[in-house]
Every structure is written in structure tokens, then in C-alpha cells.
Specification:
By secondary structure, the chain is of the alpha+beta class. It has three domains: 309 residues, FAD/NAD(P)-binding domain (3-Layer(bba) Sandwich), CATH 3.50.50.60; 117 residues, Flavocytochrome C3, Chain A, domain 1; 102 residues, Methane Monooxygenase Hydroxylase, Chain G, domain 1 (Up-down Bundle). Helix content is 36%, strand content 16%. The protein is globular and about 70 Å long.
């Protein structure tokens, strides 16, 4: 018998219909990381028909499009003294030295070539007067290193990648929900199971390799910059439940400037006001008209690290110097209207549609959950501890440490997309993948599908969407910007109650939203436990993890926290030492480069 996370039990051997798709490499997630990995596989010689990219939404409708401000790479367009070692040093400092130095260097070494590659493929970068790829300041960066396309960089980049993938005839499939990864008893991946969200039909992917590029987990918080049905922890949970390890899940970045206020409406609450607004000179004010970052960070001001600026805003609000809606003001009206429209076109249009003229008045902002630095543990090529299972993008861990450097998320997607895509291609073309037991694959798939069929149409006492909202409130209160042991313990108690309720939810049909929300809830509960348990374990403050009962950074805690499922299904935590950077990067760290914010004044 198999017991699933939502309380249903299915008998072994139940007859059930399902589609089988045979493929060499299955890429789960159709954002930038997944697209770039698939492109590399085909460019390296894999037959396009042996690669399949799938997503939960329409093709091109991925979270990548919401990354607006830019993508990092040491091109030196304006600051020729910049190079990849300084980029790596900035990344390590921003990550409070919990990053994996090897992965940081993999990204920063690659990024100049990756930016030029995107240019060759037709990405519509903003340009200097000389026609070079323009670069702007971003928080905590020593030089102007963030390439951009106005304030719609992610959208433009994903469009470029999709067009490149289509030119290579890479197949994709829309509206497929992967519900389980299937592995054998020797931790060898066999494939993936899921269902077609349009028809409700079950689908088994018989795959030599699966690449998880399914995003992160920040929409599990009450205020977040994602849409409610994405970034709910699918990737980390799927990997963890298959036997892979998670790491540093307690580190959740709260972006300083999310939209807040009744005038914007509930639809826009928490949505990102890109860091590019501050990178182009935007200033933060409290309701007393004070430019308060002068007190918190007089040297770097609004462009200090995201965790510093987010906590400063939070403290201003708590001290009673925030707006009625619980925010502060972000003002770029001292810039010319033409400048704002050219450099921040999407932001200008969005607020104009909401009745706010950015060229004349400030916008109201507050911190919002934006990025999970934690994720699945992978090696230098992106492979997990499960043979044949890879994870990239926000699903993986290692690049960002305790706090992500703005502009590095898009960089990581294309850098590790290339690295992992190349590794998978070498594996497939070499023909060295061990034979998989197809009987075991189909037996385990049938049992899982029988469980899903049992759940379909089930009545229950609780609504899954309501429980998801309850989970978001729980994490916001127990694992928010500032945390205490008492709050975390209370959160774990509440989480146990939610887990009980989740076993008695009403699901409806597989083509309905309730079924999808119930699955999201199951994944979210796993991820929430890892966040809370990691936050309780780490008795220090470092980067995005701030404990008011342990407010100082503790050098003894310069360790990563790993989470894995033991033989009885319990979550076990262990710690691992952090690696050391190369001599070249250490030299850049010793040089101690730092942004001089006042160049913007």
C-alpha cells in the first residue's frame, strides 16, 4: 500500500490507464533555466526529439518574465576595471560567505559570454550611445554590472530563449503537472509521473534524465512577488520526496520594494517594484519626509544589500513612521519624465494605469517575499544525489548563500542551464546511462496514479486554497523578515495542525483548480517544514535570516544546513562546512571593492 501526502490510500496493482512518453531528457519547467538547458543539449548534438520541455502553464508564461531589473555579467561597459573575480567577490559578500564558491565562480566566469550569446540570439538590450550593452547599478555591486532591457529584462530574455529553442525544433508540452518523480531502490531515477491539466489524463514520462527547473518557494508567504499558483515549492519538494537533500531553506529573501496600498488593489499586493527604480536613483522616504536610509546605510543608501534595506523599511513601519497600509514611499520624481519612461517603461505604465504618475509622485512599497536562496543540493554539473536527476535555477542551492545579489537570479539560470545542458548531452551521447528497470517504473507509476484517482472528486472538510492561504500567513508570521524562537516554535505547532487538515481536503476533478491547489499544498507543507526547522536550528543572524533573539552573526555557524528524509519519513538535519574560494577570487575579496552610491546623486 502507498500512503500519499493528502491522506489517500491506493491498493497495489490497480488497473489504470495512462499515456507513456519516452524521452531521453525531460526538462520540468519552461522558464529561462529549463529553456537554456534544453538549448545546450541540442546544440551539443542531442536529437531534438530526444528532449522534451514541459510546464504547468502556457509556453512562455513562466516566472522569468517577472524578473525585470537586469542580469549580471562583468562586461565592463562603463567600468572596465570590473571582472568576473570581483563579481564573484560581491556575490560571496552578499551571501555572507555561505555560498558554494565553486558554483559562484561557475556563474561569474560564464556570464560575459552568456550575455553576448543572448545578444547574438537577438535579445533587445538597452544600449549605450556607442551601441554597447548598457549596464546599470544594482544593490551591493561594486561596479555597473547589471545588463538590462528597460525594466522588462526577464520577459525579453525568455522570449529570446524560446525563439532560439523553437529555431532548434525543441519539443515542448504545456499544462502538465508533475506530481511525483520515480526512482528505484538504488537511488536511480526512472522517470516522472503527472497529469494533463486540460484533460485530467495521467502521463508517465519514461526518461533517462530529468532536469528540475521548476522555480522556488516564495509564494508560500503571505506577501510575495509571484503569482499564487507558481513558486509553491514543487521542485524542492519533488526532489526531497525522491531522496535528494535540501539545503539552507531558512534563507528567504524579502525584496525591499513590493507594491502595497489599497489604491493598487489586491491583485497587485506584493508585486515587485523592480530594484532598477533604486538603481536609477529612486529614494526611500518615511511618512515624516525623512530619507531614512541615511541612518541605516549612509554610504550605500538605497542600494545596500536587499536584506539591509528590507529590515530598515520593516523597522520604520514598526516604529510608526510607515503609511496606513504598512509601507513607505519610493520616489524617483526628481528624474526627468523622459528618463523614467525610457529606463523604466513597464513600471511607469503600470503605475500610470493605476492612477499614479511616477514623474510627479512617489509610489507606496513594503518588503515582499521574493526569492528562496535554499534549494536542492547538486554537484558542479547540477546533478542531485539521485542518479539521473538534475536541478537548476531557483530549484537548486549554492550560488546565493544567505542573501542573493540582485541581478544574479537570471545569471544563474543561463549559466547553470548551459553547464547542466552540456553535462546531460555528454551523458546521453556517450550511451553510458545504466539500463533502467521498466517493470519497476510502470509498477510505481500505476500505484501513484491509483492514488491520484482515489483522490479525484473526493469530498473533504477543508478547502485546499483556504489552507494554502493559512500556510502563507503562518510562514509570514513565524519565518518572516525578523524571527524568534517562540514564533518559529508556534509556527511548527500550527504546521502540524495544517498537516492534519490537509489529509481531509475537498479536491474536485483533476481538471479543476481545487485539485491543483491540493497538490501545491502538499508540496508547500514539505517546504514549510524545512524553512521552519532550518530557521530554528540556525541560532544566529546572517543575511536574510534574522533572529531578534540571536541578532549577531556567529562564525561557528558558517555552515550549511542539509535536510533529508530518513527511512521512516522524518526530516533530518545535518550541517556541512562551506568551501573556500579560489586564489583569484580571494584576491578580489582582499581588495575590498565597494559601491560608492553617491555617484548617483
Amino acid at each position: 500500500m502507498e500512503q500519499d501526502d493528502l491522506g489517500a490510500t491506493a491498493p497495489t496493482g490497480t488497473a489504470i490507464d495512462y499515456e507513456t512518453v519516452n524521452v531521453g531528457a525531460l526538462v520540468v519547467g519552461a522558464g529561462a533555466a529549463g529553456a537554456r538547458a534544453a538549448i545546450e543539449m541540442v546544440q551539443s548534438g542531442v536529437d531534438p526529439e530526444d528532449v522534451l520541455v514541459i510546464g504547468k502553464r502556457s509556453h512562455g508564461d513562466a516566472h522569468t518574465t517577472w524578473a525585470r531589473g537586469g542580469i549580471n555579467g562583468a562586461l565592463g561597459t562603463h567600468d572596465p576595471e570590473d571582472d568576473w573575480t570581483i563579481h564573484a567577490a560581491d556575490t560571496l559578500k552578499e551571501g555572507h560567505f555561505l555560498n558554494d564558491p565553486e558554483k559562484v565562480e561557475t556563474v561569474t566566469r560564464q556570464m560575459p559570454d552568456r550575455l553576448r550569446e543572448l545578444d547574438d540570439w537577438g535579445m533587445e538590450y538597452s544600449r549605450t550611445e556607442d551601441g554597447e550593452i548598457d549596464q546599470r547599478y544594482f544593490g551591493a555591486q561594486s561596479f555597473r554590472r547589471t545588463a538590462f532591457a528597460g525594466d522588462h529584462t526577464g520577459e525579453s530574455m525568455l522570449r529570446t530563449l524560446i525563439e532560439r529553442a523553437q529555431s532548434l525544433s525543441i519539443p515542448y508540452r504545456e499544462n502538465v503537472f508533475v506530481t511525483k518523480l520515480l526512482a528505484d531502490d538504488d537511488d536511480r531515477l526512472l522517470g516522472a509521473a503527472g497529469y494533463d491539466m486540460d484533460t485530467g489524463e495521467f502521463v508517465l514520462f519514461d526518461a533517462d534524465v530529468v532536469v528540475l527547473a521548476a522555480g522556488g518557494y516564495t509564494s508560500l508567504f503571505q506577501r510575495h512577488s509571484s503569482r499564487d499558483d507558481e513558486n509553491t515549492g514543487d521542485g524542492p519538494a519533488l526532489a526531497y520526496l525522491t531522496g535528494a537533500s535540501l539545503q539552507d531553506m531558512e534563507f528567504v529573501q524579502f525584496h525591499p520594494t513590493g507594491m502595497v496600498g489599497d489604491r493598487y488593489g489586491e491583485e497587485w499586493d506584493g508585486r515587485l517594484v523592480t530594484e532598477a527604480v533604486r538603481g536609477e536613483g529612486g529614494r526611500l522616504y518615511n511618512t515624516e519626509g525623512e530619507r531614512f536610509m541615511e541612518r541605516y546605510s549612509p554610504d550605500q543608501m538605497e542600494l545596500d544589500a536587499r536584506d539591509v534595506v528590507a529590515r530598515a523599511i520593516d523597522e520604520e513601519i514598526e516604529a510608526g513612521r510607515g503609511t496606513d497600509a504598512g509601507g513607505v514611499y519610493l520616489d524617483i520624481s526628481h528624474r526627468d519624465r523622459d528618463f523614467i519612461q525610457e529606463r523604466l517603461p513597464r513600471m511607469y505604465e503600470r503605475f500610470a494605469d493605476l492612477g499614479v504618475d511616477m514623474a510627479k509622485e512617489p509610489v507606496e512599497v513594503a518588503p515582499t517575499a521574493h526569492y528562496g536562496m535554499g534549494g536542492v543540493v547538486v554537484d558542479s554539473e547540477g546533478e542531485t544525489g539521485i542518479d539521473g536527476l538534475y536541478a537548476i535555477g531557483e530549484t537548486m542551492v549554492g550560488v546565493h548563500g544567505a542573501n542573493r545579489l540582485g541581478g544574479n537570479s537570471l545569471a544563474e539560470t543561463v549559466a547553470f542551464g548551459q553547464v547542466t545542458g552540456e553535462a546531460v548531452a555528454e551523458r546521453l551521447l556517450a550511451g553510458t546511462t545504466p539500463a533502467r528497470d521498466k517493470g519497476v517504473l510502470h509498477d510505481r507509476a500505476r500505484q501513484h496514479f491509483a492514488t491520484l484517482r482515489t483522490l479525484t472528486g473526493r469530498d473533504g472538510e477543508y478547502d485546499p486554497e483556504t489552507l494554502l492561504d493559512e500556510l502563507r500567513g503562518l510562514l509570514w508570521e513565524a519565518a518572516g523578515i525578523r524571527r524568534t524562537d517562540d514564533e518559529i516554535e508556534a509556527g511548527l505547532t500550527r504546521l502540524g495542525e495544517l498537516q492534519r487538515k490537509a489529509s481531509n481536503v475537498a479536491l474536485g476533478q483533476r481538471t479543476g483548480r481545487a485539485f491543483e491547489f491540493a497538490l501545491n499544498l502538499g508540496f508547500g507543507l514539505v517546504v514549510a517544514e524545512s524553512i521552519l526547522r532550518g530557521a530554528r536550528e540556525r541560532t544566529e543572524s546572517r543575511g536574510a535570516h534574522y533572529r531578534t533573539d540571536y541578532p549577531e552573526r556567529d562564525d561557528a555557524w558558517r555552515r550549511n544546513i542539509d535536510m533529508h528524509e530518513d527511512s521512516v519519513g522524518a526530516m533530518r538535519l545535518t550541517t556541512e562546512p562551506v568551501g573556500t574560494p579560489s586564489d583569484a577570487v580571494q584576491a578580489a575579496l582582499d581588495a575590498d571593492y565597494e559601491l560608492d552610491y553617491h555617484q548617483l546623486e
